[in-house]
Fold this sequence. Notes:
By secondary structure, this protein is an all-alpha fold. The chain is 79% helix and 0% strand. The model has no long low-confidence stretch (mean pLDDT 76).
Amino acid sequence: MKISKEKLVMIIKEEVKSFIAESESKDQVKELSGIIDDVDNIANKIYQSSPELAKELANQVQRLTNIHDKLEALLRDTGVVDRRPDW
Length: 87
């Protein structure tokens, strides 16, 4: 089977675009995971002085976690991400 030069270039460009998109998605999942951890740590520190504010922050952490889990599941289904990074 012969592949023309143009077809080969097109295939390579598509693969490069796919690789870049996957790489960016992995970075976004890691970034979101870091944000979740940071906000959770802040909520734990604030709890002593303002339990209501800490509870609100905990609610926001839960929202972020839900979004993270949905994004991670979507990426895992496409083979991009295997699991949440260990931090």
